[in-house]
Amino acid sequence: MTVPVLIPAYKPDKQLTMLIERLIEKGITEIIVVDDGSGPDHEAIFNEVRKNKFCKLCTHAVNLGKGRAIKTGLNFAAENYPGLIGVVTADADGQHLADDILKVKNKLIESPGNFILGCRSFDKNIPLRSKLGNEITKKVFHVLTGVKVSDTQTGLRGIPVRYIQECLKLDGERYEYEINMLASCGKNRILIKEVPIATVYIDQNRSSHFNPVIDSIKIYFVLFRFVLSSLSTAIIDFIVFIICSATGLSVLTSMIMARLVAGNYNYIINRKVVFRSDSSVFLSFLKYWMLVILLGSISYIGIETLVKYADFNVLISKALVESLLFFVSFAVQRNLIFFTKEK
Predict the structure, then answer these.
(1) Could you say which DSSP state residue 320 is in?
(2) Among the residues of the chain, which ranges form H helices?
(3) pTM above 0.85, yes or no
(4) What pLDDT shows up at residue 175?
(5) Which of 3, 151, 250, 311 has its CA 20 to 30 A from that of 20?
């Protein structure tokens, strides 16, 4: 039974070699290090890694990003370690203690079918950019994917062997890859278990290559990709509704026509592109239109109420009501209609 530790490294310092020494002291003797194009200035560090009999070094000629480095390491582990249970990923900057890495490894051995997260506690001593970034990301992430975790940005993870092939196929080459990995756990019904770990920030986390602005935008882009289909559907629905209303049709008739056109478009896109569902076509189509009818009824009542009793414009009323129902529709489709059967 093998659980190697994978460390993606970009321009590391002595923290990397110190971490490797502590891991070996704890009895962890299968270590994969990926040099993500760090360049000649850091060759001395990687020469030490290369000479260590417990380490395997993979090298990128140029910097390809943390996501690509993780994929390189996972592929190496899958090809070179017989009896593989899974892989534990850890950061190279000293933020993950050897004791905590061992805890995640042991938890993965104990629960080999689950995805393990080493989660930090974000108290008042945490750098503001890290605390704020995690709080925003985990809430947005929960709303859009249904996956609830306390630390979306932790790099300390236990990846079960049955999930490695899926991870190798995931989109994302840089920091957005890690958030995409968690989202895929929800889609594939991979249970996530959390292990509490120490929160370590060295020099206020200045050594981190995570850019709080650029990389957060990339992360949020991956999250919002899940709802682009629903947004395009809403636009189609809105256009059809306006056209029908302009021809003198009633609100109810206009809504029915808009739902028929936009609904069929949305079903096809969500099943094939967004959720990539392998559920029954007949059952998913039936459940989808039951949801459309239910939410359409609620929407109609809401719009009529705002128009008659609050004297709102009909288009403004529709925009307000549909916005409130948007996340309800997404969550129901994700969890009950377009699901992926666990392999």
Answers:
(1) H
(2) 14-25, 43-51, 66-80, 98-110, 128-145, 161-169, 176-187, 214-224, 228-246, 251-269, 281-309, 314-332
(3) no
(4) 75
(5) 151
Q: pLDDT digit string (tens) for 303-323? A: 999 999 988 898 888 888 988
Looking at residue 164, its amino acid is I
The token pair at 237 is 């629905």
Distance CA 10, CA 339 (A): 37
Average pLDDT over residues 145-170: 90
Q: Give the other-Cβ count within 10 Å of 254's Cβ.
A: 21
Task: Locate 1 and state its tokens.
Answer: 């039974």
Residue 201, pLDDT score: 62
Q: Greatest CA span in the chain, whole angstroms?
A: 79
Number of Cβ atoms within 10 Å of the Cβ of 199:
17
pLDDT in tens, 238-279: 999 999 999 999 988 998 899 899 989 989 988 887 776 777
Burial 265-295 (b: 16+ CB within 10 A, else e): ebbebbbeebbebebeeeebbebbbebbeeb
**Residues in contact with 328: Cβ distance below 8 Å, sequence separation at least 6, in sequence order:** 295
The residues, any chain, with a CB within 8 Å of residue 152's CB and separated by 6 or more, are 134, 137, 138, 141, 179, 182
